[in-house]
Request: fold
Amino acid sequence: MTGALQAVLFDMDGTVADTEALWVSAKAAVAHAHGIPWTEEDAHWAMGKPTPVYAGEFVRRGARGSVAELADEITAHVAAAVADDVVWMPGARQLLRALAEAEIPTALVTMAYRPVAEAVARATGLPVFQEIVAGDDVVHSKPHPEPYLTALRRLAERGVDPAGCVAVEDTVTGATSAESAGIRTLLVPSPHDRSLGLGPVAGRTIRPSLVGISPADLAALV
Reply:
């Protein structure tokens, strides 16, 4: 391992993979299949929200099935699209490869459901993401610390010291989740996150992208 760096915990959407267009397309396709209205304004409203939230809105508008069934239907659309093609965020796959070569464990901590998370993990073609915490694994979504606390607990069972972990996120919501779990965070801001006008936060480092970021750079954050 590099220095004191024990593991790196990655958000998925907008951090590792550029899946926004896939989610937008999936929601629109499912809405159309159920004969309910879904506008560009709706798509913007749903951006970044947990799957059950917009699945619940589908049900409220008259879609057939339960919230869980609608969430699974949307998830299946995205997982299938990921299996066909993934657009990686700049520098993400290179960093994952470097971490794998350095034998530094990684985890994927996402509010997407497990089928999508596992599809993205497989698509890397790398021995990464020894642990995956997905939206259907937890009760509380980000910014609650539960997703990252769950990942830390699972990594600790592998002998990883939580004090040596770093999280990589693209939103303040995600960074707050990680920081509330006691993890130092590298924030690569999403252009869709309107909350980035906040001042400095202890334990948070901001970079414009993952391009050129190395395991040594992450180790320096611990």
Observations:
- The radius of gyration is 17 Å.
